[in-house]
Each structure stands twice: as C-alpha cells, then as structure tokens.
Amino acid sequence: MSENRKTDDNFAICLVSGGLDSCVTAAIALKECSKAAFLHVNYGQRTEKRELKAFEDIARFYDIQKKLVVSLEYLAQIGGSALTDQTIDVPENQLSNSTIPVTYVPFRNTHIIAIAVSWAEVLGAGRIYIGATEVDSSGYPDCRKSYFEAYNKLIEEGTKPETRISIHTPLIDMTKKQVVEHGIKLNAPLHLTWSCYQNEDIACGVCDSCLLRLKGFREAGFKDPIAYKVL
Questions:
Q1: pTM value?
Q2: Is pLDDT at 132 greater than 60 in this prediction?
Q3: Where are the domains of the chain?
Q4: 36, 44, 57, 180: which could form a disulfide with 216 (CB 3.0–4.6 Å)?
C-alpha cells in the first residue's frame, strides 16, 4: 500500500443480503481479493430472519471472520414498500410489469452502501461489492449502472483525501441465467441462499424475486436447489 493511500484494493467489503445475487457477488469478491468482510443489513423486511440466516450460513461456508450485522429499522417506519409495510401486498406473477414495483424500498441501497463506506474507511478496505444487476432485474432505480457511477463520485467527495474506496458491481450487465452459471462455476453455495420476498419457510415461487430466480435457473439448465410452494 502506498504511503498516501490508506485503503487496500485487495480488501473487500461484501454486501451480503443472503440472496442469489449477493452470494455470487461474494464468491467473485473472494476470488478477486485476498481479504474480505461481510456486511448484512436488517431493515424490517418481511423475511428479515430468513435472510439473516442465509447470511450467517454463507459467511460460515466461506469462513468469514469479520462480519457486521446492522439494523436500519427506520426504513420500515418510513414504509412505502411491500417489503416493509404489511398493508401493501407483494405482487404475484407480475414479472412482465415494466413499472417500478411496490417492492422497491425507497433509496435503500444509498443507506446500505453508506454503512459499507464508513466501515471500509475504518478497516482500510478499498472495495465494496454489491450484487446489483440492471439487465435482468426488477427495475429498481438504485440498481442502475449510472447510480453506482454517481455514488463512487460521492464517496470520493465525502471521504478523507487518502481514502480510495470504490463500489464494484460484477453482475451489473449479467442476466439471471449468467448469474446462475457464474455461481455454479465458482462453486458458490447457492443452496444456502434465500430470495423470496414473502415467506421464511418455503419460497412462494410467485413473487418478483422468486420468478426472476426460477427463470435464471431454468434458462441456465440447472435445478434450483431450494424448495418452492408453487412451481
């Protein structure tokens, strides 16, 4: 590490929700970097407990020693999303809908990445990995390539001059089919992941996230290793 650089570009903070995309992204980060720490955020989502279990299982699989689990429960208090407001129904069988779905949590990624940046600056990590994909996704505005380009500029402006932290989105141009293929190639523990927006016992198979996941496995020619209520 150079004298004027206080961050290590081989040290990654991985945002691990416990879902398919974040698991594959973590596998990529561990291949590209020599050190990694895992960050998980609870924000009052419907499947908070199940996602946390998936995070812990994935971290255990990779023997990650440095972990951070934080709460953004105020996002549930703010509401405005079917993921955090029980009075808003999670849409079912609406994968072809071209509008931004009600499962969008307003500005969520900005809050989560901000935590990762703070932690990275303290730990001296130079990279933040997030499993966002723009090609085959739900159309969330904070998962676009242009959003992350803007956020990288914010990090540069808002951290110490000697700090060099950048967001990495290795899945941003991948389809779900390619994400599945990449995960299998890297032997990522896809069987430990959880993607369902509604259930914590058996995945519903009809929410946006389940449909996208099933589509990816089907197109890749592999059987999804988790169980579903509806297939």
A1: 0.96
A2: yes
A3: 8-220
A4: 180
